[in-house]
Amino acid sequence: MASKFSAELEPIIMDKLKIAPDDHIDIRMFLEKDSILEKVTLELEANALVITDIQEGPDVIIRGNSAIKDLSKIEAVAEVDRIEHDHPL
Length: 89
Fold this sequence. Notes:
Layout: H1 9-19, E1 24-31, H2 37-46, E2 50-55, E3 61-67, H3 71-75, E4 80-85
Antiparallel strand pairs: 1-3, 1-4, 2-3
């Protein structure tokens, strides 16, 4: 299975897993088309994501934060298309 993590996020995760797996990181996830939002949000929260914002539109984007060590569980959610680092502009 190909990684759903962006090229920017992948090295951050690999480094942090070694030195600080309990650190939290802000992420944004883009969902697959035709995903059922209520089902996905429940599954993400069950996998330790703290949801801070949901943007609905042509693309559904969920923002939140999670411990680095829990990102693999979030990546495993089928409806998640890709995951990016959500840092302030």
